[in-house]
């Protein structure tokens, strides 16, 4: 039996709109983000998921609440769906990153899997925890459709694994 996995990124926050990193920062959706979540929810509802898992971050939970309401599901919070911990980089925009961490930015742009975020987590770590959780949830739901609300880099790490692509191509 084939299980379908719907990988959903949270909707917009002020940090997204400002081009700042978020990582583990617990930010709410903007008005635009809430509208995006509502639109996403109607699209997801057409796939009739039977389960809904979500990162503990507020932005993901708000997105999942809209999806859950449209699908008649209660989102289940899963800590392993959290975004990559950006460590010292959280809340910084690209200009600030380039000024404070030029060597890291250069390496990240060449190969985002080569090293962890300064004081944070690496893509390999995020991929390991995300894939382990999703494999367990898929095994428990043969033939079902599962919706997952998570984050940009965490989801890219999962997609690389699903495609058999190297993490160096995550960006």
Q: Compute the average pLDDT.
A: 96
Rg measurement, Å: 16 Å
Q: Looking at the structure, what is the overall shape? A: globular
Helical amount? 40-55%
User: Which class best fits the helix and strand makeup?
Assistant: alpha/beta
Distance between the termini: 32 Å
Give the count of helical stretches: 7
Low-pLDDT residue spans: none
Summarize the helices and strands and which ones pair or pack.
Blueprint: E1 4-9, H1 14-18, H2 31-45, E2 51-54, H3 58-71, E3 76-77, H4 94-100, H5 102-110, H6 123-139, E4 145-150, H7 152-163
Which tags fit this structure?
about 170 residues, single chain, 7 helices, globular, alpha/beta, 4-stranded parallel β-sheet
Structure description:
There is one protein chain. The chain is of the alpha/beta class and 171 residues long. 46% of the residues lie in helices and 11% in strands. It is built from 7 helices and 4 strands. The protein has helices at 14-18, 31-45, 58-71, 94-100, 102-110, 123-139, 152-163; strands at residues 4-9, 51-54, 76-77, 145-150. Strands 1-4-2-3 form a 4-stranded parallel beta sheet. α3 (58-71) links the parallel β2 and β3 (76-77). α2 (31-45) runs parallel beside α3, α4 (94-100) crosses α5 and α6 packs across α7. The longest helix has 17 residues, at 123-139. It starts with a strand and ends in an 8-residue tail after the last helix. The relative contact order is 0.21.
């Amino acid at each position: 039996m084939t299980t379908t996995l719907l990988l959903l990124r949270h909707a917009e926050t002020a940090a997204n709109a400002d081009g700042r990193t978020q990582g583990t920062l617990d930010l709410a959706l903007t008005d635009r983000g809430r509208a995006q979540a509502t639109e996403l929810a109607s699209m997801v509802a057409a796939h009739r998921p039977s389960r809904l898992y979500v990162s503990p971050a507020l932005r993901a939970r708000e997105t999942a609440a809209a999806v859950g309401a449209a699908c008649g599901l209660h989102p289940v919070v899963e800590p392993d769906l959290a975004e990559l911990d950006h460590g010292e980089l959280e809340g910084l925009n690209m200009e600030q990153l380039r000024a404070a961490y030029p060597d890291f930015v250069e390496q990240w742009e060449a190969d985002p899997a080569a090293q962890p975020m300064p004081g944070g987590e690496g893509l390999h770590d995020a991929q390991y925890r995300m894939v382990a959780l999703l494999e367990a949830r898929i095994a428990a739901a043969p033939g079902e459709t599962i919706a997952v609300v998570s984050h940009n880099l965490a989801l890219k790490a999962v997609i690389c694994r699903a495609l058999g692509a190297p993490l160096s191509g995550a960006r």
